[in-house]
Design a protein that fits this description.
The protein is α/β, with parallel strands linked by helices. It contains 15 helices and 21 strands. It folds into four domains: about 200 residues, FAD/NAD(P)-binding domain, CATH 3.50.50.60; about 40 residues, no CATH class; about 120 residues, FAD/NAD(P)-binding domain; about 110 residues, FAD/NAD-linked reductase, C-terminal dimerisation domain (Enolase-like, domain 1). Helix 1 packs parallel to helix 9 and helix 3 packs across helix 4. The structure holds flavin-adenine dinucleotide (FAD) and nicotinamide-adenine-dinucleotide.
Amino acid sequence: MTADTGSDRTPDLTYDVVVIGGGPVGENVADRAGRTGLTVAIVESELVGGECSYWACMPSKALLRPGAALAAARDVAGVSASADLDAAAVLATRDTFTSDWDDAGQVQWLDGAGIALLRGHGRLVGPKLVEVSPSAASDTFDAPAHLVQARHAVVVATGSVPVLPDVPGLLDAGPWGSREATSAQQVPESLVVLGGGVVACEMATAYADLGASVTLLARSGLLRPFEAFAGEQVGAGLREGGVDVRLGASPTRVTRHDDGSVTVAFTDPQGEHEVTASEVLAATGRVPRTDDVGLDAVGLTDLRRGLPVGDDLLVDGVEGGWLFATGDVTGRVATTHQGKYQGRVAGDVIAARFGSPDASGDSVPAPATPDGRAAADAVAPWSRFAASADHTAQTQVVFTRPQVASVGLTEQAAHDAGLDVRTVSFGLGDVAGGSLMGTHYAGTAQLVVDEARRVVVGATFVGPEAGEMLHAATIAVVGEVPLDRLWHAVPAYPTVSEVWLRLLETYGL
Ligand SMILES: Cc1cc2nc3c(=O)[nH]c(=O)nc-3n(C[C@H](O)[C@H](O)[C@H](O)COP(=O)(O)OP(=O)(O)OC[C@H]3O[C@@H](n4cnc5c(N)ncnc54)[C@H](O)[C@@H]3O)c2cc1C
Ligand SMILES: NC(=O)c1ccc[n+]([C@@H]2O[C@H](COP(=O)([O-])OP(=O)(O)OC[C@H]3O[C@@H](n4cnc5c(N)ncnc54)[C@H](O)[C@@H]3O)[C@@H](O)[C@H]2O)c1
C-alpha cells in the first residue's frame, strides 16, 4: 500500500522531529530531542526496542550468563557445582528478558516520555517528508499510509541487516541467522557455526553450554578486529568448552537433507571436509539498513557502507541541515552503547538547534554550511554536540569465555594512525585478586601507550568477567589521563584491578 508521494500532498500528521526506527538508538535520539519542548514521533515497523532487545544483546547475554556463572563457580575450590545447566530453564529465562517478544513495556515508556509512536514502515519521500506505510509486522496492516511532515529534522536509525555469504546451497538450506539463534525454543543436538566474529564466538559458547555439539568454521582467525591474543584465548576457551574450532575454514557447499539435518562442505589448509549437524548458523556479518528508506528521494545513493555522517550526526551532502543518522545505519558504530551515545549527541544537537533555549544554557553553534553544519572549528571535540569517542574511544565487550573487553585503538590501529606506541601487558591470574577468583583464573590485560603524550590510547582485557574492568580504561582513554597521574589511582587489594598497578610498573613507573 502506498500513499501519493511528494510535497504536493497535504501531510496527515506533523511533528517537529521524526525518527525512523525505534531500536535502542532511535529511542535515545527521540528522548533527548524532546527535552527542549519539541514534538517527536518514532516510526517503527516491528518491535519498539529493536534488534538489541529481542534478537541480539539481551537474549544472547541471557543465554550466555548461566554458563559463565557455572564455570566461575566450578573453578572455586570447595564449591560443589556439579550440576549441568538446565537448558529449558535457560531458554525460559531468556524469554522473560525479551518479554516474550512483546514490546508493550517499551511502548509504555514512549507514552510516558511523550513520544508518539507511528507503527509502520517509514520511507522518505522528499525533504522532511516521511511516508509511513503499514508493515507486515504491524497490527495496522490494513490501515492506509500516512504522510508525515517533520518541521525541523528527520533521523534515520534503521539499524543493520545480516549478510548471507554466497555459498552454494546455503540460502536453500534455510540457515539460522542471529535472530533464530537468539530466539530458538529448542537446543539443536548439533550446530555448525559459520563465521569467526562476535556473533559466531558468542553463540558457539552459548550453544555448547546448552548441550549442543558445536563446530565453528572461521575463514581466518577469531575476533579479527581485536588484538590477536583475544582471538587466541577465546579459541582456546571454545575448545575447552567442547567446540570443534576450525580456523582457515571456508564453506563451499551447504545441503539440507530430507531428515532435516544439514551438511556443510568446507576447505581448510588440511584439505576438503564435511560436517553434518542438526542446524547451521550463518554469523557472517551485518550491513547498514539503508534500503527502502527512501534515501534516493533526497539524493543519497551508494550507501552500502552506511549513511555518512559528521560528528554532529548530520548526514553529509543533504542541503538544509535537517537529516540526521545514528547507530548501526551509519556504518561507523556497531554496538548498542556506541549507537546510543550517537543518539544522545544527535538528540542534543536537535534539541539545542530547534527547541526552546536549553535549560543547561548550552547552545549548538549556528549552521554555516549548505548541509547545515556549524563551521568546522565551531563545535568543540568532546562537547556534547560531537560524537568524538567514535574515533578513538569506542568500547566493546564480547561475552565469550573468556570475555574480551576493549576500548580505543589496538596496537596496529595506533601504528596506522601514525602514533609512536608501546604496549605493556600483564596476566590477570598473576595478581592476588585474580588468584582468589578461581584455581584456573587467567587472562591478559594490555595497554597501548602513546609515547609522545604518555597516555593510554587503547586497552584490552581478556578474562572471566573482563567486561566489568573496562570502564576504568575507558575513563583513562577519554580523559587522556597521563600515566604519572594514573599512578595515583590506587587499586584496592585484593581485586583483579590491581593489574593496573602491575601494568604501570611494567611500563617503568
Ligand atoms: C546476536 C547479536 C548480539 C549483539 N549483542 C550486543 C551486545 O551484547 N552489546 C552491544 O552493544 N551490541 C550488541 N549487538 C549489536 C546491537 O544489536 C546493535 O548495535 C544495535 O541493535 C543497533 O541499534 P540500532 O537502534 O541502530 O538498530 P536496531 O536495533 O536494528 O533497531 C532498528 C529499528 O529500526 C526499525 N526499522 C528499520 N527500518 C525501518 C523503517 N524503514 N521504518 C520503520 N522502522 C524501521 C527496525 O524494525 C528496528 O526496530 C549485537 C548484535 C547481534 C546481531
Ligand atoms: N557483544 C557485542 O558487542 C556484540 C555481540 C554480537 C554482535 N555484535 C555486533 O554485531 C555485528 C555483527 O556481528 P557478526 O559476528 O555477524 O559480524 P562480524 O563482522 O563480527 O564477523 C563476521 C564473520 O564472518 C566471517 N565471514 C564473512 N563473510 C564470510 C564468508 N563469505 N564465508 C565465511 N565467513 C565469512 C568473517 O570472516 C567474520 O569472522 C558486529 O558488528 C558486532 O560487533 C556485537
